User: What shape does this take?
Amino acid sequence: MDGPVFPPPPRSARPVRREWDALSSLPPSTRRFAPAQVADLPPAARRWLTHAVEPGVPLARVVALTMHGHIKLGSWRPFRATQILAPGVGFVWAATARVAGLPVLGYDRYADGRGEMNWKLGGLIPVMSAATADVGTSAAGRLASEFVFVPSTFGTATWHEAGPDAALATWRIGPHTETVCLELAGNGRLGAVHLDRWGNPNGKPFGRYPFGVDIEAETSFCGITIPSRFRAGWWWGTNRWSEGEFFRAEVTAAAFR
Assistant: This one.
């Protein structure tokens, strides 16, 4: 089974073209989805997956996403981004934002157990660059939570029940173990994804802090339904959510392989 040909990395991700190409060229699965495959999962996970993946759809391993929205860089700034994402393996999120009318280009990534952030004003002047162990652990948490963009990878997580409308999915990602909670909003639709994610929100010492995504809309692409409008940030589920929210996005295209 041949999958779609994914786009080459945008300008902002050219320094990590090797990682982009490696994720883009992962061989597609030869299996197709059948509801019986999720029969032993927690009830909430079963309802979500039978809602999100149509019977007979290939069990895709990778997605290429196109999105736009606003990111909080001091104040809310518009951005456009392309992402290649393989749950349990890695991701590259490449974007261009605007600050004072000037473009800030760069990428966040996780691959081979390591994370990195690299952003430059006008593509030339460094404004943020980090590839520490802390960045890698935080990126692994992001990767675990973003598997909802490729729900057909459900078989590579370990599942536990968390209530009638919630389930826990645990991922082993390189040296990291990350557990995310999925909460349903009715009729099998995903309403939120959250976890205790490694980071240093608002300059706090690095540690585990509440992080979550509120999902406002979903869209089906090629028989797979994924979050298509959402908000993300730190302090999810607390009275500090308005302080910690830093990302609002809409997915406009998705191609699976």
